[in-house]
Please model this.
Amino acid sequence: MYRRTELESERSHTPDDDLLTAAEVAALLRMTPAWVYEETRRNRIPHMRLGRYFRYRRSTIDAWMSQLETGPDLAGRSPSSFQTKSRRRPTSVSSSRGT
Model:
């Protein structure tokens, strides 16, 4: 018979720490399960592997989404740096042929 250890009984199980399937994460993100699996294989979504299955902790997914919203890509950039810059075209094209 399985008995809980002291440490396990001290932990409180909260809904934020539920383990989610890829389909549940997909519904949460409003994406397809195939997209979730692909991002998981690329290690872009925090996950854990249990045998041949992937599981996602809800609190970790929530923290990951918050990080994406404030992400390092946007940190320290001014709003003007998000504008697209026009590309310059060369005024003349030189040929390397000796003609």
Summary: The chain has four helices and three strands. Helices lie at 6-10, 22-29, 33-41, 58-70.
